[in-house]
Design brief:
Shape of chain A: flat
Helix content of chain B: 10-25%
Number of strands of chain B: 12
Radius of gyration of chain B: 26 Å
CATH topology of chain B: Sulfite Oxidase, Chain A, domain 2
Number of helices of chain B: 8
Helix content of chain A: 55-70%
Order of helices and strands of chain A: HHEEHHHH
Radius of gyration of chain A: 24 Å
Structural class of chain A: mainly alpha
Number of strands of chain A: 2
Largest sheet of chain B: 7 strands, mixed
Strand content of chain A: under 5%
Number of helices of chain A: 6
Number of domains of chain B: 1
Oligomer: heterodimer
Distance between the termini of chain B: 80 Å
Largest interface: A-B, 40 and 40 residues
Distance between the termini of chain A: 16 Å
CATH architecture of chain B: Alpha-Beta Complex
Largest sheet of chain A: 2 strands, antiparallel
Shape of chain B: globular
């Protein structure tokens, strides 16, 4: 993550004195001696107060990402639910389409690879029964639950930096 | 007049998220994780209760539950025609480093597969045959010419082993089944029992596991139906009580725990052909010059060593099988 800083780099002492003059934030000498380096554009050093900006900016960006992911998942959940509903309307019996079936139909190679990776490099029981059980759930529910959470995160406007 | 323009990051105190909300957010995320675990808990407990010890590594004594009823038939006399230029793989390795997809994708199959019940066990022979039949495995074993053969085994995952299989040539089974002239393929099915094979709960896979050979391949002298290994009955994790051994093809062709042989005039849609035909096709003959989609097949790791050796065309059995494919140009013979 990169953002620009309009002021030239200064020593910790300079930074500390100027921030006190402006009175825009409070900073202890110990804190101002902490410096972080962000971005690849010149590797410009930032004062400790800017660390807060970075966190807020990052939080805001993550919220934006969560919103996009949430709505995408919600749309997929809606499609899955509509598919179930159409099937019900046509056959008269409600037959759940499990999430695993959807994954299998969309991209079986990744499903197969994921099982091998989880079982061989993490733990066999993490796939079966934990993930395998979750993959038995209706696709709309497995997509809908994280969609709701992501949208909720995105909708939280309590902390907005910009 | 001094006009002070606030920067974007200069937030008023009222914009700060109340601490309680911030803490609650963490609680919500933690709750989601715990909730998932709780929902999956019955299945986890069932798995543990069933005695699954896939991860403990304590399971084998690897012949603890082998088929005792046919134990008196082994060791079978060695067929000296099939000589091997490599050391025999240690028995413990060959019976613990297994793939058996019905029980998962991991290498703890030797523990998980102990849930399989192999007696009683019936084999159905049907389709294009003179007379369909169902034969009990012990009756079948006593009517077949048992022998021992030393074969190389090449897995598609680029490892190999050398094992002494016991069993009988498949051509002897063809003599028993008497396929009709119209039969061009033999399709072999593994058992289907999700109660003992947890992988079969994943209903999106096309269970049961099916493999197939052409009639010419089935009648080839190398094609072997294995019922034992290392002079003993076959352990469950190796495909007891009846499995295929076709040493010139990748290991996934050698279907395990067979319950049905169906003779047909249509090429079978095999399990892996349905799942990922681009990587695991019908023919699957070993060829070092045709790589897998994600790795090279030019060499193989010899199980039990850190040595990689060059892979050979048809796994070194070209003299026995090359002629089977002379007329099949245009087929994907090596995937």
């Amino acid at each position: 993550m990169i953002y620009s800083h309009s002021e030239p780099a200064r020593s910790p002492a300079e930074a500390h004195s100027q921030s006190d003059e402006r009175g825009s934030w409070r900073s202890s000498p110990e804190a101002s001696s902490l410096r972080i380096k962000i971005g690849s554009e010149g590797g410009k050093s930032l004062r400790v107060g800017d660390d807060h900006i970075a966190v807020l900016w990052r939080y805001s960006f993550l919220q934006w990402m969560a919103g996009r992911a949430g709505w995408a998942l919600a749309a997929a959940a809606l499609v899955a639910f509509a598919n179930d509903f159409i099937s019900f309307a046509q056959t008269g019996t409600y037959r759940v389409i499990p999430a695993g079936q959807v994954w299998f139909d969309i991209h079986v190679a990744s499903l197969n690879l994921m099982q091998a990776v989880v079982q061989r490099f993490l733990h066999p029981l993490l796939w079966d029964p934990v993930i395998a059980t979750m993959l038995q759930w209706p696709a709309w529910s497995l997509l809908g639950a994280p969609a709701a959470v992501f949208i909720a995160i995105a909708a939280n406007r309590g902390v907005r930096a910009c | 007049m001094l006009i002070r323009q606030k920067k974007g990051w200069e937030l008023p105190e009222r914009s700060a998220t109340p601490e309680a909300h911030y803490v609650n957010r963490r609680r919500l995320l933690a709750g989601m994780g715990i909730g998932g675990l709780i929902l999956a808990a019955p299945a986890v407990l069932r798995q543990i209760g069933a005695g699954s010890n896939v991860s403990s590594g304590t399971v084998p004594p690897h012949f603890a539950t082998a088929d005792e009823e046919s134990a008196s038939l082994y060791p079978a006399p060695r067929n000296a025609r099939y000589q091997i230029d490599r050391p025999v793989t240690a028995e413990r390795l060959a019976t613990t480093y297994n793939n058996f997809y019905e029980f998962g994708s991991h290498k703890g199959i030797s523990g998980a597969a102990q849930a399989l019940r192999i007696r009683p066990w019936a084999v159905r022979i049907d389709g294009l045959v003179e007379r369909e039949m169902t034969v009990d495995i012990d009756t079948l074993l006593r009517s077949m010419p048992l022998e021992e053969r030393m074969y190389r085994h090449r897995c598609v995952e680029a490892w190999s082993m050398t094992v002494p299989w016991s069993g009988f040539r498949m051509s002897a089974l063809l003599d028993l089944a008497r396929p009709l002239a119209a039969a061009r393929y033999v399709e072999m099915h593994t058992f289907s029992d999700p109660e003992v094979a947890p992988g079969q709960h994943q209903a999106w896979y096309p269970w049961p596991y099916v493999e197939g050979l052409t009639i010419e391949e089935a009648a080839n002298e190398l094609t072997f139906l294995a019922t034992g290994i290392y002079g003993k009955p076959l352990p469950k994790q190796n495909g007891a009580p009846l499995r295929l051994a076709v040493p010139w093809k990748y290991g996934f062709k050698s279907v395990k725990s067979i319950v049905r042989l169906r003779f047909t005039d249509v090429r079978p849609r095999t399990f892996w052909d349905r799942v990922q035909s681009r990587e695991y096709g019908f023919w699957a003959n070993v060829n070092p010059n045709v790589p897998h989609a994600r790795w090279s097949q030019s060499t193989e790791r010899v199980l039990g060593t850190n040595i990689r050796v060059p892979t050979r065309l048809f796994n070194g059995y070209a003299e026995f099988v090359q002629h089977l494919y002379d007329e099949l140009a245009g087929e994907r013979l090596f995937t």
